[in-house]
């Protein structure tokens, strides 16, 4: 089993069981394994809900401001890229089911250093994102109940979702199912209202038509540079879909469940994202100041929905709490998998008798509770600071997924093609194209003055984690040789 963690990768290493260290296994409660209470309905809604968050409801306005109606091209390009990366994750997770998802796959493909680096980078990003989402939700509720400080709401949300994730996996699944269902219902209603307004089907309303798409400086008012700038803004909006690859490991039939969820999720997400942005730039002029501030509220006001601002605040609150719940789950499963592979303290691989990695959950919420103090001390600046700290880690992880898929797909086609029930289209050309596209996006982010600090921060963190991973593997290899 050690050969799967250290030394050159062979076809046997790739197709063997997921690397699990004996020390971490011994730390489990006797006879405990990850539970499998999640059902197909949970997986589908987790996949949909994981990617529908503040990036769509709020971030789309910033993209429209820099690209105009051309933001539709930006969203299509970003969506196709994320769908392709998600397909890569799905292909590997169905062929090689693993609680550690793409971190375990990177370890199979390249060695322990790769799994260590990808896993810890993702975990660092997600635990900060959990704190960001708790803070964002707290800001909304503080607006409704100003007598209670923001930090107190952060503390409440962190406590509630810690309990929900510690009690049982089924609790997480039900929370996420209903959260995601509410978000999907809100988007469907938005699409229906928007289409009715454009066609003139609302009571007493005139047809808006398509004039706003070309009537304010053209479809590309800022040219293709605007489309590229919009791409940088929206590319991270699709993040979160990877949660479904973790959840699949806790179903009775991971391969079949994930395969079905993948087919139903990715194109629906494209419809929701592109459809929503199409409604926004069709119903309102792209340069309307309200679009940049809160595009969904602006559209609902335009079509005459009473209390639109508060209604969207409720939807955004649900989106943030849903993302908090899903990302806390993903973070705990990632660090649990790292402990299983001796890339994290073995105690984090301990499971309760009902199959929940409680210590992994508690480790993953620690920064969220630290953010309570940060919100108490710096309530006006902590949100932006946390956003900048996670930077472009998601893009680095996506690039690692693509590189891993190139390696493992070749091995699987050679030795176990029957496992490839989900396949990435156009392999290897599309995978290479996706890698190049992500590399270009990373360069553009580094060249932009506003996003450069995020790229630099991500680069420094990646270098540090990678160095630790390489030194750790060399030390283990030397110990084995001795």
TrEMBL record:
<feature type="domain" description="Amino acid permease/ SLC12A">
    <location>
        <begin position="42"/>
        <end position="452"/>
    </location>
</feature>
<keyword id="KW-0812">Transmembrane</keyword>
<keyword id="KW-0813">Transport</keyword>
<keyword id="KW-1133">Transmembrane helix</keyword>
<protein>
    <submittedName>
        <fullName>Amino acid permease</fullName>
    </submittedName>
</protein>
<feature type="transmembrane region" description="Helical">
    <location>
        <begin position="184"/>
        <end position="202"/>
    </location>
</feature>
<feature type="transmembrane region" description="Helical">
    <location>
        <begin position="152"/>
        <end position="172"/>
    </location>
</feature>
<feature type="transmembrane region" description="Helical">
    <location>
        <begin position="382"/>
        <end position="403"/>
    </location>
</feature>
<dbReference type="InterPro" id="IPR004841">
    <property type="entry name" value="AA-permease/SLC12A_dom"/>
</dbReference>
<feature type="transmembrane region" description="Helical">
    <location>
        <begin position="424"/>
        <end position="447"/>
    </location>
</feature>
<feature type="transmembrane region" description="Helical">
    <location>
        <begin position="110"/>
        <end position="132"/>
    </location>
</feature>
<dbReference type="InterPro" id="IPR004840">
    <property type="entry name" value="Amino_acid_permease_CS"/>
</dbReference>
<feature type="transmembrane region" description="Helical">
    <location>
        <begin position="265"/>
        <end position="287"/>
    </location>
</feature>
<feature type="transmembrane region" description="Helical">
    <location>
        <begin position="222"/>
        <end position="244"/>
    </location>
</feature>
<feature type="transmembrane region" description="Helical">
    <location>
        <begin position="307"/>
        <end position="331"/>
    </location>
</feature>
<feature type="transmembrane region" description="Helical">
    <location>
        <begin position="359"/>
        <end position="376"/>
    </location>
</feature>
<feature type="transmembrane region" description="Helical">
    <location>
        <begin position="71"/>
        <end position="89"/>
    </location>
</feature>
<dbReference type="Pfam" id="PF00324">
    <property type="entry name" value="AA_permease"/>
</dbReference>
<feature type="transmembrane region" description="Helical">
    <location>
        <begin position="453"/>
        <end position="471"/>
    </location>
</feature>
<keyword id="KW-0472">Membrane</keyword>
<keyword id="KW-0029">Amino-acid transport</keyword>
């Amino acid at each position: 089993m050690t050969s799967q963690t250290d030394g050159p990768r062979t076809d046997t290493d790739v197709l063997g069981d997921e690397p699990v260290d004996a020390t971490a296994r011994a730390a489990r409660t006797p006879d405990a394994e990850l539970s499998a209470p999640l059902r197909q309905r949970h997986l589908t809604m987790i996949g949909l809900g994981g990617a529908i968050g503040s990036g769509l409801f709020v971030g789309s306005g910033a993209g429209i401001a820099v690209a105009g109606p051309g933001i539709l091209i930006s969203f299509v390009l970003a969506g196709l890229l994320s769908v392709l990366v998600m397909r890569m994750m799905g292909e590997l997770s169905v062929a090689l089911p693993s609680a550690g998802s793409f971190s375990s796959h990177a370890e199979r493909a390249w060695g322990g250093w790769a799994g260590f680096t990808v896993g810890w980078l993702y975990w660092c990003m997600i635990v900060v994102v959990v704190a960001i989402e708790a803070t964002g939700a707290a800001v909304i509720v503080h607006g409704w109940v100003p007598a209670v400080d923001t930090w107190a709401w952060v503390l409440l949300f962190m406590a509630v979702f810690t309990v929900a994730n510690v009690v049982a996996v089924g609790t997480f699944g039900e929370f996420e199912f209903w959260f995601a269902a509410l978000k999907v219902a809100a988007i469907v209603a938005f699409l229906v209202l928007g289409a009715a307004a454009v066609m003139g089907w609302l009571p007493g309303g005139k047809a808006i038509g398509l004039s706003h798409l070309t009537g304010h400086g053209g479809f590309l008012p800022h040219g293709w540079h605007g489309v590229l700038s919009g791409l940088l803004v929206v590319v991270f909006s699709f993040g979160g879909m990877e949660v479904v690859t973790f959840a699949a490991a806790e179903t009775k039939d991971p391969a079949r469940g994930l395969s079905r969820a993948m087919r139903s999720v990715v194109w629906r997400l494209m419809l929701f994202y592109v459809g929503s942005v199409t409604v926004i730039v069709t119903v309102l002029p792209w340069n309307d100041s309200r679009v940049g501030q809160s595009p969904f509220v602006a559209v609902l006001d335009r079509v005459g929905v009473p209390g639109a601002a508060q209604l969207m605040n409720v939807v955004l609150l649900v989106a943030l709490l849903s993302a908090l719940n899903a990302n806390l789950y993903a973070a705990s499963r990632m660090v649990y998998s790292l402990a299983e592979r001796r890339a994290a303290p073995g105690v984090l691989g301990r499971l309760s008798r009902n199959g929940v990695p409680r210590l992994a959950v508690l480790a993953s919420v620690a920064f969220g509770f630290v953010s309570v103090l940060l919100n108490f001390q710096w309530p006006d600046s902590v949100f932006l600071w946390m956003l900048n700290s996670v930077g472009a880690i998601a893009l680095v992880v996506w690039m690692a997924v693509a590189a891993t898929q190139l390696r493992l797909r070749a091995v699987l086609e050679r030795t176990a093609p029957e496992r490839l029930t989900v396949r990435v289209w156009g392999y290897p050309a599309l995978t290479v194209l996706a890698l190049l596209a992500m590399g270009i996006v990373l360069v553009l982010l580094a060249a932009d003055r506003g996003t450069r600090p995020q790229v630099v921060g991500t680069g420094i963190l990646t270098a540090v984690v990678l160095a630790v991973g390489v030194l750790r593997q060399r030390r283990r290899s030397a110990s084995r040789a001795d």
